[in-house]
């Protein structure tokens, strides 16, 4: 039996886009819109009581649950870091960023770094392996075990030969991830610049007083597009909450009911342009400038849907695991019990580099998209507020210039 709750959006008044009160109204008008949920219940008379799964009755289930506590905690910290708001840098932040105290500051805040905290499970695991191997070799050396148990030792030559390969894997992996981050940053730079330019053309190009309402609605859609695209590419975003102060309720319902929010807003923009009383050449110019929106959607969806080849990621991960698992065996003759801190440092360093590559492989949570979207709203608000002022100043200059000329068209001496 399928039950679907009614839509939870119950507006008490129309939400209008007010350019004169954007900073106050963008986040306070209405509570967040809850997404629609579906509840499924399956009734079967032939099997009223399904047999319990084998995993639930496994004797190792409590042990597995205990072992998963730390990895689950580390993953939660990592995902919480993805949801943090990023901010655009200004001059003060750049001064703080390049301060001479940055090394001390970064070291003292190591325990609050989500990259380091997310590495606790693998680093602890490999360090424990080193402790076990060191304990075993010590027991063999002290003849606490029978002679049939060999000493776990090996030559360091295999590590010397494979170290360059591991270094190249990590470098190429991180470089490939950074190139994706740079591509995502450039794509959003084009989207924001195209949105600002498109809004400027609407403000200066739509002059018919009969199109005032359509012009206002069109600016709403243009400002809402980068917000919808941001919600489309970042996991866990609430599009209803972010758009409720930018679109009217009826328009918002249409966007939320569509499968592709940014594409739906582009359709709103296109239909609105066709309804404006414009010259055909100006209308064609506006429609051609919408290509930056489609291009931005294409690049963002390509980055989200196509990761770095999984075979490369798996190879790097497996190489790191084998390297750190066998490191205590390789270093035992030279280091003995020092293999424990050596393995800890090696695992923390190498896995930290690999973790940074994994984090920036998905670029959009790393970008300050909220600030970029707010900058579009502020730019449109400022453009609207100064439009009449600039027109008044230019009109006054035109009148002064006319007074400076004689009726015959010659300037006064």
Attribute tags:
elongated, disordered N terminus, 413 residues, two-stranded antiparallel sheet
Structure description:
With 413 residues, the chain is mainly alpha-helical. It has 17 helices and two strands. Helix 8 packs antiparallel against helix 14, helix 9 (212-233) packs antiparallel against helix 17 (369-403) and helix 15 (310-335) packs antiparallel against helix 16. It is elongated. The chain starts with a strand and ends in a 10-residue tail after the last helix. Residues 1-56 have low confidence and may be disordered.
Q: Gyration radius, to the nearest Å?
A: 31 Å
Low-confidence stretches are 1-56
| Mean pLDDT rating | 82
Terminal Cα span: 92 Å
The total count of strands amounts to 2
Brief summary:
Helix content is 66%, strand content 1%.
Layout of helices and strands:
Blueprint (H helix, E strand, L loop, with lengths): L1 E2 L18 H4 L13 E2 L20 H7 L1 H14 L8 H7 L4 H7 L5 H5 L1 H22 L15 H49 L6 H22 L5 H5 L5 H9 L3 H15 L4 H9 L2 H15 L4 H26 L3 H23 L7 H35 L10
């Amino acid at each position: 039996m399928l039950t679907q709750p009614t839509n939870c959006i119950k507006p008490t008044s129309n939400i209008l886009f007010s350019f004169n009160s954007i900073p106050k109204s963008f986040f306070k008008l209405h509570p967040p819109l809850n997404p629609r949920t579906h509840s499924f219940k399956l009734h079967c008379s032939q099997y009223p009581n399904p047999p319990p799964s084998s995993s639930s009755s496994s004797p190792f289930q409590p042990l597995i649950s205990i072992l998963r506590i730390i990895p689950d905690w580390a993953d939660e910290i990592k995902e919480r870091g993805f949801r943090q708001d990023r901010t655009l840098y200004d001059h003060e932040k750049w001064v703080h960023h390049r301060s001479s105290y940055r090394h001390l500051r970064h070291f003292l805040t190591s325990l609050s770094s989500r990259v380091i905290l997310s590495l606790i499970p693998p680093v602890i695991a490999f360090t424990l392996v080193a402790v076990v191997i060191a304990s075993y070799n010590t027991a063999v050396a002290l003849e606490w075990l029978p002679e049939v148990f060999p000493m776990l030792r090996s030559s360091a030559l295999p590590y010397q030969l494979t170290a360059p390969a591991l270094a190249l894997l990590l470098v190429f992996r991180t470089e490939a991830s950074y190139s994706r981050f740079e591509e995502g940053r450039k794509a959003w730079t084009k989207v924001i610049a195209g949105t600002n330019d498109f809004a400027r053309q609407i403000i200066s190009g739509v002059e018919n007083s009969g199109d005032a309402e359509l012009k206002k609605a069109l600016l709403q859609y243009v400002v809402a597009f980068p917000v919808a695209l941001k919600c489309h590419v970042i996991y866990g975003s609430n599009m209803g909450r972010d758009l409720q102060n930018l679109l009217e309720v009826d328009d918002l319902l249409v966007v939320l009911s569509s499968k592709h929010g940014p594409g739906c807003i582009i359709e709103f923009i296109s239909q609105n342009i066709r309804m404006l009383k414009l010259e055909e050449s100006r209308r064609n110019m506006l429609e051609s400038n919408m290509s930056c929106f489609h291009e931005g959607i294409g690049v963002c969806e390509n980055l989200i849907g196509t990761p770095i080849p999984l075979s490369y990621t798996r190879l790097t991960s497996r190489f790191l695991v084998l390297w750190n698992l066998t490191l205590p065996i390789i270093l035992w003759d030279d280091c003995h019990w020092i293999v424990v801190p050596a393995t800890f440092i090696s695992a923390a360093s190498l896995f930290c580099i690999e973790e940074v590559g994994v984090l920036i492989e998905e670029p959009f949570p790393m970008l300050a998209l909220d600030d970029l979207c707010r900058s579009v709203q502020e730019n449109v608000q400022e453009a609207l507020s100064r439009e009449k002022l600039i027109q008044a100043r230019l009109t006054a200059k035109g009148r002064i210039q006319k007074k400076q000329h004689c009726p015959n068209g010659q300037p006064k001496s």
